Amino acid sequence: MNVLDAAAGPWVRSSYSGGNGGNCVEWQPRAAAVGVVPVRDSKCPHGPALMLSPSAWGAFVGGVVGDGSIGWPA
Question: Where's the DUF397 domain (predicted)?
């Protein structure tokens, strides 16, 4: 699998996103095996994807749902 194949899917959406079409991030977990994690805006599935390293993606997720170090504006 190369990076282009990995970016093709399947994509996984956050379990917190609900079904209302809100602000969601999708990611492609199988691509981590080749050293990249594509991340995209679920509202724009044909738009660009950010290509993160597995460690950067893990730090982002940990900061959002883990230790709360990434805060959201009130």
Answer: 11-64
Please report, for the chain, the start and end positions of each structural domain, with discontinuous segments joined by +. Answer: 3-12+23-63
pTM: 0.69
- Give the separation between CA 5 and CA 67, rounded to whole angstroms: 33
Q: Identify which of 36, 18, 19, 20 has the alpha carbon closest to the alpha carbon of residue 28.
A: 36
Give the torsion sign (CA, 13, 70, 50, 2).
negative
Distance separating alpha carbons of residues 73 and 66, to the nearest angstrom: 17
CA distance 11 to 43: 13
